[in-house]
Structure to design on (124 residues):
């Protein structure tokens, strides 16, 4: 993971492998900042949704037990929202490098829509 300090806050950039390990160990909370439509079509199992359009840093859960990491489609929106959260007083936050596109490129499992039935299913 890459880390930088910005005005006393720590901003981390995690790889998809680090995010997967963090989720499996229960050490992180992954928050998806994409649109509800993007999330409904496909998302990482266990990721919470807090779209960038209505993002409120004050509504983020505490980080006493788990660290907050954000992700989007490519990493651009999640980095922007992470930096806005730091501007709002969050002292430690991170995002997933490359976003959901990198997750899929790395062949990580996710929840997608079965186009035949319209039902969500695990995609490998």
């Amino acid at each position: 993971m890459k880390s930088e300090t910005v005005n006393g806050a720590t901003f981390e950039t995690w790889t998809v492998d680090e995010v997967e390990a963090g989720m499996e160990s229960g050490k992180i909370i992954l928050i998806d900042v994409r649109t509800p439509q993007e999330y409904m079509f496909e998302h990482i199992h266990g990721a919470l949704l807090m779209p960038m359009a209505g993002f409120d840093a004050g509504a983020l859960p505490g980080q006493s037990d788990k660290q907050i990491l954000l992700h989007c489609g490519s990493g651009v929106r999640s980095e922007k929202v992470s930096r806005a959260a730091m501007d709002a007083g969050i002292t430690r936050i991170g995002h997933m490098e490359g976003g959901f596109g990198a997750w899929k490129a790395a062949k990580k499992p996710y929840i997608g829509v079965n186009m035949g039935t319209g039902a969500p299913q695990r995609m490998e």
